[in-house]
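Dear support,

I submitted the protein below through the web form. The confirmation email said the job was done, but the results page showed an empty box. After a refresh the structure appeared. I'm attaching both so you can tell me whether what I see now is the final result or a partial one.
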Amino acid sequence: MKIAVVEDDAKSAAFIIRGLVENGYTAAHFSDGKEGLKHLKNEDFDLAVLDIMLPGMDGFSVLKALREAKNDLPVIILSARDNVDDKVKGLELGGDDYMAKPFSFTELLARINAILRRNTSSQEQTLLSYADLTMDLLARKVTRGRERIDLQPQEFMLLEYLLRNAGKVVSRTMIIEHVWEYNFDPKTNIVETRMCRLREKIDKPFDRKLIQTLRGFGYVLE
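What the results page shows now:
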């Protein structure tokens, strides 16, 4: 699942993003309100953590513009402004939750998980499966048959991307852009390394191998 962090304080943003990635989420950071709004409108995020005091466009205006565009992306407002009037305004504009700074990341994570559960209307949206492989996105649990498979956060994100594209070939460039979110470096071997580790857990203990390599093209789950 992909979360946008719209926050102009670099230290706070880095703290939030590090925690999200460590807990298996993909995160993108935007430090300007106008830039954040553009990406929230045009990209596929599951939730946004939104500061109020932003350059370019304040968080309240970003939230108002989102809702006026009929965009129902879940939004948690995170702000140093903790007076009641601001909290009421944020919720009335369409915010799903409001947290004041300083904050506990554990509490923020719990609120993110609660909103994602609440906004999931069916079991199919929380589960990804292919053959006997199943991923529970909210419980962060992977099983193959009756066997529980423990994955590191990046392995989890890599497998999630493969599952969402089961039966389709995904290239190294596509994987890097969607899982690690930085510009492709043809010299890096990060995809091969993580794919090898993932195969050790997903395929090696089982007779049927699911992760296939198409040399010159990429990888496919089939």
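Response: this is the final, complete result; the empty box was a page-load delay. Helices lie at 10-22, 33-42, 59-68, 84-92, 105-118, 153-164, 172-180, 190-202.
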